[in-house]
């Protein structure tokens, strides 16, 4: 009987010897549950933090750290040759140095030398170690060779220290891994020197201290745009309205807002020195005229009608305030009807808004809102139209940035 071929994407998950090694268990769980075949290759240092039995139980694969384990199968060569992606999380300063200079004294560093697939290194270390000139030189060397070295997050480190060097959230690491499997060239360092302002999430317009008018936006697409831009080298400011408890993207400055008025003020402020402005937030078109000071009580009589007034069109305002050379990108969530399809309404909105680019998403029936994937069209003010194929929201973000960069770098 012919043995069945495992068609799942093959991922090698390297784990360095840092305290953040415990988070690799969550990365592993998310990868396996999303349909990937994962082989964990820890360093000896990593096994001081998480035992091999834990990685074996979560992956269903044997775990070795040295090159003299399972010698007949030549694992130190085979793993890298057969992998579709190698992810190292956490990547310590020591691991980055070894990878940069081709040292191979264990199974993981040998795997890095034999891999010809995309490689994603996710650093985690104290701020001083990350900022040291030796580490920065190693990172620059690796990136010049085409290795994706992710930007670390900022936050609580070991002990009482806080700063840049924290391992990004496991969900973010998996998003980046999936993006590189979908599109290996999705994260070039081509946005260095650019300041990008992105809005995300749905605004909430208060009716009383308890209730509000809102929408179904989760904020995932805006966060993906911010995340991908940061990993491509941009300085990113993310203005986040209500989101689905999303962790802040690594390397991104986040400002939280609630209502459309708050988002409007924040976007005008950050847009002043931004090279690219992206309005991905789902802004409420209307808000209640009256805000009740106390909770509106339920009674036997019918409630009073809620009077609404129109919110300002923030995208149109940003277009009107656009500086020379600044690129403005809008988003449009549309449904077709008897008068036209999604693209018809998208084209009309692009003309009405006056932005440089408009991303059009078909919504409803499990599309765009509150889901992991997305698809749509990218419309240009020049008349060009590009289909954005179905895939992760990070993949759609990378396609949008490709077009925007060609415009802004012009």
UniProtKB/TrEMBL annotation:
Family, per entry: In the C-terminal section; belongs to the PPC synthetase family.
Cofactor names: FMN; Mg(2+)
Annotated spans, Phosphopantothenoylcysteine decarboxylase: 1-195
Residues involved in CTP binding: 285, 295, 312-315, 331, 349, 353
Catalytic activity, reaction form: N-[(R)-4-phosphopantothenoyl]-L-cysteine + H(+) = (R)-4'-phosphopantetheine + CO2; (R)-4'-phosphopantothenate + L-cysteine + CTP = N-[(R)-4-phosphopantothenoyl]-L-cysteine + CMP + diphosphate + H(+)
Span list, region Phosphopantothenate--cysteine ligase: 196-410
Annotated keywords: Decarboxylase, Flavoprotein, FMN, Ligase, Lyase, Magnesium, Metal-binding, Multifunctional enzyme
Domain Flavoprotein: 10-175
Gene Ontology molecular functions: FMN binding; metal ion binding; phosphopantothenate--cysteine ligase activity; phosphopantothenoylcysteine decarboxylase activity
Any matching Pfam family: Flavoprotein
Role of this protein: Catalyzes two steps in the biosynthesis of coenzyme A. In the first step cysteine is conjugated to 4'-phosphopantothenate to form 4-phosphopantothenoylcysteine, in the latter compound is decarboxylated to form 4'-phosphopantotheine. Catalyzes two sequential steps in the biosynthesis of coenzyme A. In the first step cysteine is conjugated to 4'-phosphopantothenate to form 4-phosphopantothenoylcysteine. In the second step the latter compound is decarboxylated to form 4'-phosphopantotheine.
Name by which UniProt lists this protein: Coenzyme A biosynthesis bifunctional protein CoaBC
Record has Metal-binding as a keyword: yes
Flavoprotein listed as a keyword: yes
Entry GO CC: phosphopantothenoylcysteine decarboxylase complex
InterPro entries cross-referenced by the UniProt entry: CoaB-like_sf, CoaBC, DNA/pantothenate-metab_flavo_C, Flavin_trans-like, Flavoprotein
Pathway: Cofactor biosynthesis; coenzyme A biosynthesis; CoA from (R)-pantothenate: step 3/5; Cofactor biosynthesis; coenzyme A biosynthesis; CoA from (R)-pantothenate: step 2/5
Domain of life: Bacteria
E.C. code: 4.1.1.36, 6.3.2.5
Start and end residues of each DNA/pantothenate metabolism flavoprotein C-terminal domain: 191-405
Cofactor note: Binds 1 FMN per subunit.
GO terms classed as biological process: coenzyme A biosynthetic process; pantothenate catabolic process
